[in-house]
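PROTEIN–LIGAND DATA SHEET

This sheet pairs a single protein chain with one bound small molecule, zinc ion, given as SMILES. Inputs appear in the order they were entered. The predicted three-dimensional arrangement of chain and ligand is reported afterwards as a token string under its own label.
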Amino acid sequence: MADENLNDTKNIDASVGGTLFERYFTGRNEASLVAPNTLFMTADYVNLTAFETADGLLLVDTGMVAAGPKVFEEIRKRTDAPLNTVVFTHGHLDHAFGLAPWLEAGEKPRVIAHENVARRYRTYMKTGPMNVHINRVQFGIEADITWPQRDEDFFWPDTTYRDSLTLHLGGERFELRHAKGETDDATWVQACDRKIVCSGDLWEGILPNCGNPQKVQRYPEEWADALEAIAAVGAELLLPGHGQPLEGADKIRTCCLNTAEALRAIVSQTLEGLNAGWTHEDILASIKIPEHLTGEHYLDPLYDRPEFIARNVIRKYGGWWEGFSSQIMPAKMASQAAEIARLAGGAAALIARARELTDSDPALACHLAEWAALAAPEDREAQQCVIDVFTKRAEGEIALMGRGLLSHAARNAEKAIAALDSTG
Ligand SMILES: [Zn+2]
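PREDICTION REPORTED AS:
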């Protein structure tokens, strides 16, 4: 099967809808009313909603640690209502870690989250260095990163639930529903009397990021279930965890159902390939977003690519063996690379061919450059070839995760050259 399918996102013009962070930076840096008694804002790149009720505020998400003071200040500019309840849409760092300024100001909110949020925090306590490493790789962060690892680093929910929870605040009804999608601990909130839904990260205006190459299992099928459930409640306003709100019942329904359809297509295509006994690479090459949805900018693969999502589906239903017999107990990559270089007549031949193929077949060029550097790690030309080939490919890559991991190869090669320079 032709592998150029894996690169066919190149004909997507994402600039029409903006890049990922252009979409996340909504320009809504101040808390403002988006509906009666409903404040909404973006803190850095994360959105928060505050519902003012006769019993006080219901705050949906709190932002990152660093964004907490700004969120507090902004909402306090608009209302003095006491903080009655906080709901975390999930336990990620950008949503559930900004509560400190509220507590320091003497507020005593009830803190509600899905029961798996507490489990996530306990996992974070075991995997801090791993998460630091993941973020360094995918975002190219060289500076110090802190990761919550101590008990006191977390705002532990005092109220958890399993499937759904109904809240009555100031005579109004709010429904909390559990979903799985990007995470297994998600909650979406329906302000029933206001016809508003807070989706958390179940809606971000991009192809759902449920294929992250370095992270734990994600849930495309359950994500589709959740989007269909959101579509069914008939909300007039959807306030997402990232990106711009969606307005209008028809638009919300269409966007949610189309996104669910795209996810279901990826899942069913993957299962078809698994059932047919295909190799993983043939399954990945077969993945296509349905034709009639390809122009929708809310399906732009700005974070994950369709085939990354398919890999997650493979992981859920199948095993790790990709289907090539030599890979079941493979020779080390460095040994393979040394042998390929020997057959080619030396690393220089691989380097030359990698450079030749940089534009016409960037995927193959990356293999050749990586083999050259593995075969001859102390060869500056080989490391420079990795930098050039991987950087070029990263520049043309639409998905943040693709770009991040390609750039990581270039950064590693830069470090290898620096190490060679320092030892002379
Ligand atoms: Zn998020």
